[in-house]
Design brief:
Helix content of chain C: 55-70%
Largest sheet of chain A: none
Structural class of chain A: mainly alpha
Number of strands of chain A: 0
CATH topology of chain C: MetI-like fold
CATH superfamily of the largest domain in chain A: MetI-like
Distance between the termini of chain C: 14 Å
InterPro entries (chain B): Peptide/Ni-bd, SBP_5, SBP_5_dom, TAT_signal
Shape of chain A: flat
GO molecular function (chain B): peptide transmembrane transporter activity
Number of domains of chain A: 2
Shape of chain C: elongated
Largest sheet of chain C: none
Chains: A mainly alpha, B alpha+beta, C mainly alpha
Subcellular location (chain B): Periplasm
Helix content of chain A: over 70%
Strand content of chain C: under 5%
Keywords (chain B): Signal
CATH architecture of chain C: Orthogonal Bundle
Oligomer: heterotrimer
Protein name (chain B): ABC transporter substrate-binding protein
Strand content of chain A: under 5%
CATH architecture of the largest domain in chain A: Orthogonal Bundle
Number of helices of chain C: 14
Order of helices and strands of chain A: HHHHHHHHHHHHHHH
Number of domains of chain C: 1
CATH topology of the largest domain in chain A: MetI-like fold
């Protein structure tokens, strides 16, 4: 197990370095950072001076290594646009996005698991079909479209919920639903199929035969087995939500990481863009690692082969 | 029939449900809720360049002199008198008894520290154009300062009144731009009580704002202003309908018409100091040799039906534009301009003459209204120019433009609200990165005019510039902008042409 | 992941050929038939757009802006609605129906070409990894992990913003970002198949590895491959719409449904139909592709159910 973990960790580290190098090369190659730093109305000489001063005239590899070295010592660089440390700026924007991500995941899981269990227990009844329809519709409705519908209905027409901002818990209701429901179908289906499998398994039949109540069997035995893959899928989905919250943040006026990313992309504020991509990749890596480890715990075959 | 009635009543009910929630809640809380469209990452005005930053700066800080938004005449503000002692030297007599929000007294030290700090290139102020002509500021006495310019610079007072907020020197020296961004201190009519960088600014009326301030019209100003970031136009409209905000601007023309139907909202259209034009790359460096031909550029100017665009898309108080400057700016002499009336046949003839009867393909870059861009694409298609539209963000286009990659660009410019035609020419005809024409003659005229203080002599150069730029069709001027403001009926608000909403003069009705 | 209606379907009574059996299962699978039906209509509409469209989708007429759709004449007595423009006109007076019809082309083209590019990349990588294993597999697995850690929307946004958006850029960017699922499934399937008798026999007969991959292994994973293709098609269509919605997708005047949504958004509180029409079409298309994909999965591998984490 320890060897498996070390292997995974090394791989994760390699992945992060690789992804960050790609992002760095991609962004630095397409934009002249000196122009971005120089700002409005700068003269050619000023731009040249900045180029030397910031070292933009050095080779790409050298600059990348410098950047990476900075990160290792906790320095994400300085924003071209705001002239402040990127770490501080990200620190200000991250909480909103994390909160939105956690709430959305919680929402998705809280809807998906009961629905999936019900669908499995009452297979081929109207509940099952209802769950299936919900998941099919959920997958087909782009989340920005859903967000607009929510705003029209609950924000403008019924006026039950505030439309934008992040002041109170009410502000998070619509964004949470809009972001979370998209992750729900996959979780629901996985719960359902896992439960069906578990319910058909021998130990469940045995338990039922022993006269345990169906409720106990469903929750004690079957769900316990079916839930681990759901949790690890949830972890991965959480990563997707952090990366995909841009649109939801824009539509609901939430000033989180997604909004920061979009603004920074618009203004070619490369250090911020690079750091956000790096950070989210890092989250992914950690979450996928967690999911892997969970699966490893679940499935001894993986542990032994280390595949 | 019955069904139709039913549907109609349903529609009426739906419309009724969409009436804006009365803003009485905001009125009762005595807080004016306004949206910010751009994130102001640092409220220190020298370290941001977004319009919203300029608006809030005018609430928090004061400038040495104040430009009247209606007459554009300069009025005393922190300086009670000012004079040019020579081409390159300005002197200011300062007002006594002015207090900063933190209790500091205002004096010459504050002015010289602020100006010397921001004009020092090492401090990397964002809008370099606003300060890079300052040589140094010197203290003559406690209430008298002299500002030395690097070279003769006639429009200097425009910058003094617009983009030079004065900071408390001692405080600024201690906390720097970063500290000023976190805890701003000024002399303005409102002080910041709390802020979340770029997201939210809560201002409170500063009752010790100096008497005789040219800013405040009369009493009754709203005690609190809460400005929060709502970058998305549709979200702003939703919030206005839902009562979450009391005021918004830049409402697209069509939505403005719809909002005007709402019983609880007022919609006002006002001209703004901003023009839209097509800038055409006449140098060929963006890889479209056809545009090097003057006849092709003229054809483009003839092909666009500006009046139709204004009547149907732009609307409001926008006017057709024939000059590469704002019509009321100093030196913007429309009589000298070559005028291109909409004429498809003439445009086609010119294209044929230039050898492009079959047209050509070209990229057009634009950051404003997509509708406008699309309308232009269709007009140009009618004379055979196949436009590949690149609707992008301003900042991305600016960089592309500077590196010479934009054959046609739909630009709009607010001239930093400076009342001199040459403001924009200096950028687009005389300076290396932004110059899209590379016309040495025009460049020489712009540079020569910048060193002449005598208005009549400057005008001569301006006339030549306007005549040549329009004859060569380096630009196809399109129209002046107007802005739609929508706000709750609870609010009395007067928009100004200088595109600087003065919330400090808004009142509840 | 199996469909309720499919598992419920009783086995066909008479023994049939495998293809006939599959076809039979398809016909009995409601979701599949609905999806296939909608998609067929959309494809047909897209292909025949020039014939079906009543107007030129690019022809603007600023005097005839935002004419409401015809049902506004029936139900609300709108005097402007006209049979000339059944779905009304957009903010530039262009016929909405014609733009919707041409829009089907754009969405389908983006979905299909993106999915095919990713399919080529993913399948090639996956089959190489599965067939050669060892170092090749290590490299491919690394690439898959790296791809999974790239925040898709953010990177697509960045590239499109920096490079400039066009249909081509968009297809390439998405194609280069959506190959991971193809790689994962082909890798696993190839690993399983590589030791199958018929592959070993082919190898013994001296077939080259390329030939084995192409003619022995690929046909056997085609079913799963097509399912992923539909999934990624739907994915690409939604992402295109999202990017267009953020103003960084397809460029006007191309009539993309996502772009039409973005352009109509400011008006949605006053003229809801302006987003309802493209919104419904987008929803129906993605729904159809998903139903088709789900159905195919059920039909081609009825016993396959899984918790495969991609």
């Amino acid at each position: 197990m320890a060897r498996y973990l070390v292997q995974r960790l090394l791989l994760a580290l390699g992945v992060i370095v690789f992804v960050s190098a790609l992002t760095f090369a991609l962004t630095e190659a397409t934009v002249d950072p000196a122009l971005a730093v120089a700002g409005e109305g700068a003269t050619e000489e000023a731009i040249q001076q900045i180029r030397r001063q910031y070292g933009f005239d050095r080779p790409l590899v050298e600059r990348y290594l410098g950047w990476l070295g900075g990160i290792a010592s906790g320095d994400l660089g300085e924003s071209y646009r705001m002239r402040r440390p990127v770490a501080d700026i990200i620190g200000e924007h991250l909480p909103v996005t994390l909160k939105l991500g956690f709430l959305s995941l919680a929402f998705a899981i809280l809807v998906a698991i009961p629905l999936g269990v019900l669908a499995a227990v009452r297979q081929n009844t109207w509940i099952d079909r209802f769950a299936l329809s919900v998941s099919v519709i959920g997958q087909a409705l782009p989340n920005f479209l859903f967000a607009l519908l929510l705003i029209i209905v609950f924000g403008v027409n019924l006026r039950w919920l505030p439309i934008s901002g992040s002041g109170t818990w009410q502000h998070f209701v619509m964004p949470t639903i809009a972001l979370g429901y998209y992750a729900m179908p996959a979780l629901m289906r996985l719960t359902r199929s896992g439960m069906i499998e578990a319910l058909e398994a021998d130990y469940v039949r045995t338990a039922l035969a022993k006269g345990l109540s169906p409720g106990t069997v469903v929750f004690r035995h079957a769900l316990q087995n079916a839930i681990l893959p759901v949790v690890s899928l949830g972890a991965v989905q959480f990563g997707f939500m952090l990366g995909g919250s841009v649109i939801i943040e824009v539509v609901f006026g939430l000033n989180g990481l997604g909004y920061l990313a979009r603004e920074s992309i618009r203004r070619a504020d490369l250090p911020v863009v690079q750091s956000i991509v790096l950070l989210i990749s890092f989250f992914y890596v950690v979450l996928i690692l967690l999911a892997d480890v969970l699966n490893g715990l679940l499935d001894p075959r993986i542990r032994s082969t280390g595949a | 029939m019955k069904r139709r009635q039913l549907l109609q009543s349903a529609a009426v009910m739906a419309a009724g449900a969409m009436l804006p929630r009365s803003a009485w809640a905001n009125k009762a809380a005595d807080t004016l809720n306004v949206p910010l469209t751009f994130g102001i990452e640092n409220i220190d005005r020298y370290y941001n360049s977004v319009v919203d930053g300029g608006i809030l700066a005018r609430h928090i800080w004061d400038t040495l002199i104040y430009r009247d938004p209606v007459t554009f005449a300069y009025k005393p503000a922190l300086a009670t008198a000012w004079r040019w002692t020579d081409d390159k030297t300005l002197e200011f007599d300062l007002r006594q008894g002015v207090k900063f929000h933190n209790g500091d007294d205002f004096s010459a030290d504050d002015v010289i520290f602020t100006l010397n700090f921001v004009s020092n290139p090492a401090n990397k102020a964002t809008g370099q154009d606003n300060v890079n002509f300052i040589e140094k500021a010197e203290k003559l006495s406690d209430y008298k300062v002299r500002v030395q310019l690097k070279h003769s610079f006639p429009p200097a007072l425009e910058y003094v009144s617009g983009e030079w907020p004065i900071y408390p020197g001692k405080y600024y020296e201690r906390v720097g731009p970063r500290g000023m961004g976190e805890k701003p201190v000024g002399t303005g009519p409102y002080r910041v009580v709390s802020l979340v960088p770029s997201r939210e600014f809560v201002l409170e009326r500063f009752d010790e704002h100096y008497k005789d301030s040219p800013k405040l019209e009369k009493g009754g100003n709203i005690p609190r202003i809460k400005a929060r970031l709502l970058p998305d136009m549709a979200t702003q409209v939703a919030e206005l309908l839902g009562g979450g905000i009391d005021w918004m601007w830049y409402v697209p023309a069509d939505q403005a018409e719809q909002l005007a139907q709402m019983p609880n909202l007022t919609v006002v259209n006002e001209e703004v100091f901003r023009t839209g034009s097509l800038v055409i790359d006449a140098t060929g460096r963006s890889g479209v040799p056809a545009l090097k031909d003057k006849r092709v550029r003229k054809a483009i100017a003839y092909a666009i039906n500006r009046q139709e665009m204004i009547d149907n898309l732009v609307k409001g108080k926008s006017k057709r534009l024939d000059v590469p400057c704002y019509p009321t700016q100093f030196g913007c002499n429309a009589a000298k301009a070559v005028v291109y009336d909409f004429n498809v046949q003439k445009a086609k003839d010119l294209m044929k003459e230039a050898g492009f009867a079959d047209g050509f393909s070209v990229d057009m870059y634009a950051w404003r209204s997509r509708e406008w861009s699309e309308a232009i694409v269709a007009y140009l298609a009618a004379i055979g120019i196949r436009v590949n539209l690149q609707q992008m963000d301003y900042f991305a286009i600016r960089d592309l433009m500077r590196s010479g990659k934009t054959p046609i660009t739909f630009i709009d410019d607010g001239y930093y609200r400076l009342n001199d035609s040459a403001t924009i020419w200096q950028r687009f005809f005389a300076k290396a990165p932004d110059d899209q024409a590379h016309d040495d003659e025009v460049k020489a005229w712009v540079e020569a005019a910048a060193r002449i203080n005598d208005p009549a002599k400057r005008q001569e150069f301006y006339d030549r510039i306007i005549a040549k730029v329009t004859d060569e069709a380096y630009w196809a001027p399109l129209f002046t902008f107007s802005t739609n403001y929508a706000f709750t009926k609870d609010l009395a608000f007067t928009p100004n042409i200088d595109e600087m909403p003065r919330w400090y003069n808004a009142r509840w009705t | 992941m199996n469909d309720a209606t499919a598992t419920a379907a009783p086995a066909p009574a008479a023994p049939e050929s495998p293809t006939a059996a599959t076809l039979h299962r398809m016909r009995r699978h409601k979701g599949f038939m609905i999806g296939a039906g909608i998609l067929a209509v959309m494809v047909l509409v897209g292909l025949l757009a020039p014939l079906l469209a009543p107007h030129d989708p690019y022809l603007q007429s600023l005097a005839k802006r935002r004419i409401p759709p015809i049902w506004h004449a029936w139900f609300y007595g709108s005097p402007r609605a006209t049979t000339l423009h059944l779905l009304g006109t957009d903010q530039l007076g262009r016929d909405y129906l014609s733009r919707m019809l041409y829009g089907a082309r754009i969405s389908l083209a983006i979905g299909l070409s993106t999915a095919l590019i990713s399919a080529v990349i993913g399948t090639a990588l996956g089959m190489l990894a599965g067939y050669f294993r060892g170092h090749v597999d290590a490299v491919v697995s690394f690439l898959i992990s790296a791809r999974l850690c790239v925040p898709l929307i953010l990177v697509a946004l960045t590239v499109v913003a920096l490079v400039g958006s066009s249909l081509m850029t968009l297809i390439l960017v998405l194609g280069l970002l959506l190959w991971d699922r193809f790689a994962v499934i082909t890798r696993t399937a190839t690993m399983q198949l590589a030791n199958a008798d018929f592959v070993l026999a082919s190898r013994a007969a001296g077939s080259s590895w390329l030939r084995i991959l192409a003619s022995e292994i690929f046909p056997n994973l085609a079913n799963a491959w097509i399912v992923v293709l539909t999934l990624e098609m739907a994915n690409a269509i939604v992402i295109e719409a999202a990017l267009s919605f953020l103003g960084l997708g397809v460029q006007a005047p191309l009539p993309s449904w996502g772009l039409m949504l973005a352009e109509g958004r400011n008006d949605m509180f006053f003229n809801p139909w302006i987003i309802a029409i493209p919104g419904a079409a987008l929803f129906a298309l993605v729904l159809a592709i998903n139903l088709l994909g789900d159905g195919l999965r059920d039909v081609t591998a009825p016993e396959g159910r899984g918790g495969a984490l991609a």
